[in-house]
TrEMBL record, chain A:
UniProt entry keywords in alphabetical sequence: Cell membrane, Membrane, NAD, Quinone, Translocase, Transmembrane, Transmembrane helix, Ubiquinone
Family assignment from sequence similarity: Belongs to the complex I subunit 1 family.
Annotated protein name in UniProt: NADH-quinone oxidoreductase subunit H
Subcellular location: Cell membrane; Membrane
Task performed by this protein: NDH-1 shuttles electrons from NADH, via FMN and iron-sulfur (Fe-S) centers, to quinones in the respiratory chain. The immediate electron acceptor for the enzyme in this species is believed to be ubiquinone. Couples the redox reaction to proton translocation (for every two electrons transferred, four hydrogen ions are translocated across the cytoplasmic membrane), and thus conserves the redox energy in a proton gradient. This subunit may bind ubiquinone.
Catalytic activity: a quinone + NADH + 5 H(+)(in) = a quinol + NAD(+) + 4 H(+)(out)
EC number: 7.1.1.-
Top-rank lineage group of the source organism: Bacteria
Enzyme superclass (EC): translocase
Quaternary state and interactors: NDH-1 is composed of 14 different subunits. Subunits NuoA, H, J, K, L, M, N constitute the membrane sector of the complex.
GO annotations of cellular component type: plasma membrane
GO molecular function, one term: oxidoreductase activity, acting on NAD(P)H, quinone or similar compound as acceptor
Biological process, per Gene Ontology: aerobic respiration
Automatic annotation (TrEMBL), chain B:
Species annotation: candidate division LCP-89 bacterium B3_LCP
Positions contributing to [4Fe-4S] cluster 1 binding: 97, 100, 103, 148
Superkingdom of origin organism: Bacteria
Protein's name according to its UniProt entry: NADH-quinone oxidoreductase subunit I
Gene this chain is encoded by: nuoI
GO CC annotation: plasma membrane
Membrane topology term: Peripheral membrane protein
Needed cofactors: [4Fe-4S] cluster
Cofactor note: Binds 2 [4Fe-4S] clusters per subunit.
PANTHER family listed in its UniProt record: NADH DEHYDROGENASE UBIQUINONE IRON-SULFUR PROTEIN 8, MITOCHONDRIAL, NADH-QUINONE OXIDOREDUCTASE SUBUNIT I 2
Pfam families, alphabetized: Fer4_7 (PF12838)
Amino acid sequence: MLQTAIILAKIWGVLLTLVSLAAIMTWVERKQSAVMQDRLGANRADVLGLRIIGLFQPMADGLKMFFKEDFVPARGDKFLHTLAPMIAFFPALLTFAVIPFGDVLRIGTLEIPLQIANLNIGYLFILAFGGLTIYGTVLAGWSSNNKYSLLGGLRAGAQMISYEVVLGLSLVGLIMVFGTLQLDIMVKKQGELLFGFLPAWGIFLQPLGFLLFLPSAIAETKRVPFDLPEGESEIIGYYTEYSGMRFGLFYFAEFIEIIVLSAIMATLFFGGYQIPWLYAEGFQFPWGWEWNLPHLLVVILQIGSFFAKIAFFCWLQVLIRWTLPRFRYDQLMRLCWVNILPLAVLNIVLTGLVLMILN
Amino acid sequence: MANIDYNNLKTNYETSVQKVEMGLWEKIYYPEVIRGLLLTTGHFVRNMTVHIAHVFGLARNKRGAVTYQYPEERRPIHRRYRGRHRLMKKPDGSERCTACMLCETICPTQCISIIPQEHPDPAVEKHPASYEIDILRCCFCGYCVEACPCDAIRMDTQKVEIANWDRTRMVYDKEYLMTDITGPGAPPENDPPLWWLQ
């Protein structure tokens, strides 16, 4: 009974955190892009004359979307048209279930692992549900009864399936190094040290893997410079025929994907909740200092570090989105199949060789 | 004119389009991408520092954005900017216009319509009984100001927000053109005529 309550509390906590973070991300995206471009950004939405640097803008956007006409094209497939945004939204949320956001929390004799579901195939779970979002985009294009949407959906499908391949391959090296698919063990192993001082984060073990993972992951979330599936105004993407809250769900899913992708990057390559040299008892610096901390403080520090990493990668993704121009479609495909794919295979071979030599 | 043989027209596309080949440094994307990201990060860090300094009341003379926050903060307008018209006044408060019809005549969009009238003062010949400008037709060329021999109409109110909910209210009458003339930075309403007219 208590266990069930704890799991439910974790699910609700993560769900609420994710959804509210996504709402804040819409604000962050607008403000950060504005600051990067020497503007101020949205600051007009006010409640009773109170503006607080545009923080009411997400609420105003949400309200607007709820009151817009919910349009289904004539002779479009109404069922699939409704289902598509849900399919796009749902796996993005579900992926977070396997990501550990903290170490085990001990209250008395109670041990609470700070992870919703500790699957032994957690890594495959992420890839599987990442792949499921393709259905959302393709179905959205198909059910709209619009040839441009259909072409947009096809483009999106081709892009996402291509990058799914390199996304998986770029992470194989990491599995070989850690020897597991279980994410919490991966994170625990990243708490160890390399050469006695360097934290054994994925980025230090697999630098090439990270450089290949980052573009393929951004291509999976369909953001600039890989945003051809959407192509907001000029090449017409798969959600042309969407309006109101159905469109809002696609939009919201994109922001949740940003956060989830940041969480995956932090977990796989940047030590998850680990802080360098922080162990369960406290800090143990490589030059011999020790600083013992109470258990609760360590757990809070770890969760804080995890969310700080998420915040940093969200910032990085928005930075990339507002810096780079879009790829042309042939460039996009060439980058995937000609450049990243051989390098990913090379990375696997090199990792295997190094592991063979070391053992 | 020379005869051009359109069938045998040859443009040297080889030289007219210069194709810049990317070197290896550009082709591996990452260095150039990072260079671009550093540029935008520089802007972000600089502007963010200024914004945070503003919160603590520091660096007031620096701006974190190049944009103007429009209704609160206005872009300075040059004093020769052609804004909304106004009719100048004599020292006694009546209109300076003598209804000579030059502005109505020269107006390319014919948006000015004047009804002249005998002036009650026998020393003055005419004055406008009504002076209307259809601001929806006006093209802000400023010919009326140039044509006016007694500096009675000017466009120096610096008013640029000419909007209304109702088309009928966009025809400005004499009273409106003589009263609502206090634009920011505009000269006073009975500014003496320009020196060459005195």
